[in-house]
Design a protein that fits this description.
31% of the residues lie in helices and 17% in strands. With 294 residues, the chain is α/β, with parallel strands linked by helices. The strands form three sheets. It has a seven-stranded mixed sheet, with helices on both faces. Strands 4-5 form a two-stranded antiparallel sheet. Helix 2 crosses helix 3, helix 4 packs antiparallel against helix 5 and helix 4 packs parallel to helix 6. The longest helix is centred in the middle third of the chain and has 22 residues.
Amino acid sequence: MANAEPAIRSKSSTYPEPLSIPPLQEHRQTFIILHGRGSNATVFGPALLGTQVSEMKNFQLSFPHAQFVFPTASKRRAQIYHRSMTNQWFDNWSLQTPNERTELQVEGLRETSAYIHSLLRTAIDRVGAENVVLGGLSQGCAAALVALLTWDGDPIAAGFGLCGWLPFRLQMEDIASSDSVDKEDDGEDDLFEVSGEAVDTDPPTQAIAFLRDELDMPANGPTLTFKRIPLFLGHGVEDEKVPVRLGREAVSCLKHLGASVEWREYEGLGHWYSGAMLHDLVNTLKNVTRWEHT
């Protein structure tokens, strides 16, 4: 077995050190994969890697050159659980009404996005952006998607989400699907102003500017790196925790934003991944990367 790779270390005291699984062979790729709310890296990571995706291989064996990095979310008070403490990437209200109390999401999404961006930069320094994948399950999917939409570095190899949703989906899709830009001056600061000069932006750029503004992130101009990152989203049709309609809506929004998305639904599957879902994910990743030839 190859020598263990050093762990990607947390740069924030609020996040525990990630669980880092070294590659089985020479280190060429890095996966960063986020667990769902209430879980942690130790529970989530090994089970995912050990899931069979074919008769001969589990998920880890499908990528023998990959280091797998499983961060653990910080403990935050969950309002919907009577403010009990739990591992969560951000707080959110009921997913039956995902557009209510969206303000609960802001602080956690801002902090988590900054944390995930730091993990991405470290991984890119080691193996190159074209060899890095970011993904997540459930709330981890939601957090990964927001981190990708606000990522302004080099495009990574791919992103994926399982059984998840997209925070601020309704607002972003309303903006991204508009046919025209409202250029009326209402006397307030121009959200689409860069370096003191007004910029004529298209609706998808405005939608991302809205997201960054909601999360109190600095405006970075019209950089939409996520458009060059292929995405895979999978969802169980019988999901009782994150209804499959939320996954469908996320895909609709992402496509309005200009993202390239492969969407798969799985009959009879509830709120979890399956061997069939991971099999499709493996095939997609091998199709959108050149890893098999390296």
